[in-house]
Structures are given as structure tokens and as C-alpha cells.
Amino acid sequence: MAEIDDLTLDYRAAFQRYLPQRSEAALTLGYQLGRQAIAHDVSLLDLVDVHHLVLTEILEDTAEADARDVTAAAAEFLREVLSTFDMAHRSLPCAPQNAAQRPGGG
């Protein structure tokens, strides 16, 4: 659980750094978080939970007029974080596409 707590702290700091200017350098922190998550066997679901928690906290302190902009930035940041999971997934051998080829398939 401490690993998720550490990830939450790092995610919050990285997203808050990204939010004001949306710089490529700050977005790179998101990519690095994704790499660290994979290296530490953090599940995709846990990572999405961390994102949701951090976004919820930030939206609580965000003016209603800015909420849409913050949410869009959060989506961009999450996409960058998850890009490493996407690359890892794509590097796996292709799974059978046909249900009949799967164990127990028709």
C-alpha cells in the first residue's frame, strides 16, 4: 500500500506541475510515472484510481469555470502516463482474435 501512496504523491506533484503551463517537460513527468508504475508492477487499475483521486482533489479547489479545462488537461496527462502501458501491451505476442481459437471457445 505504501507504493500506491508514494505513487499518489508523485502523481499529484507531477500533474500540478503540468497543469499551469502544459509544457512538454512537465508532460514527460507523466511518461516517467508510467514507466515507474510498470517497473514496480502497479496495475493499470490502480494507476487509474490514483489519477481519479488526484483529479477529484484538484477539482475540489478549482473554480467551476475552469473545471472543463482542468479535466481536459488531466486527460492529456493520463494519456501520457498510460502510453507506457500501451507500448508494453503492444509488445506482447498477439492474442488470438477469434473466440473459437480461445480455450473454451466455440
TrEMBL record:
SUPFAM superfamilies: KaiA/RbsU domain (SSF101215)
Domain Phosphoserine phosphatase RsbU N-terminal stretches: 10-88
Pfam families tied to this protein: RsbU_N (PF08673)
Protein name: Phosphoserine phosphatase RsbU N-terminal domain-containing protein
Organism, scientific name: Pedococcus bigeumensis
